[in-house]
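>> received
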Amino acid sequence: MNDTEDGEPHSEYDGPSKSARKREALARQKLGARLTKLKNAELATLDLPELLMEALVEARRISAHGALARQHQYVGRLMREIDVDALEKALARLPSQQNVRAKMRR
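>> returned
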């Protein structure tokens, strides 16, 4: 550890590791992909920012694999601005998502 100009020890840890940030970004992308599969009425109940809603609607129209991957990355980036935990809870309350979880348990 080197000292800074004011004599304080310099900390090398500045937050989450690069791997942790990548895992977080990937989780947001996957959540965004799940959101693209929801019906418009269900999306409307989630009270998402307008720019994110537009990106989700656009992702539905994209069929090329590479373009869709880029769109999911964009959606993930937009989702940095929202509370993902609250969104996950709201998503869990949607009827269509409850059916998905019930099928996964079988």
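>> The radius of gyration is 19 Å.
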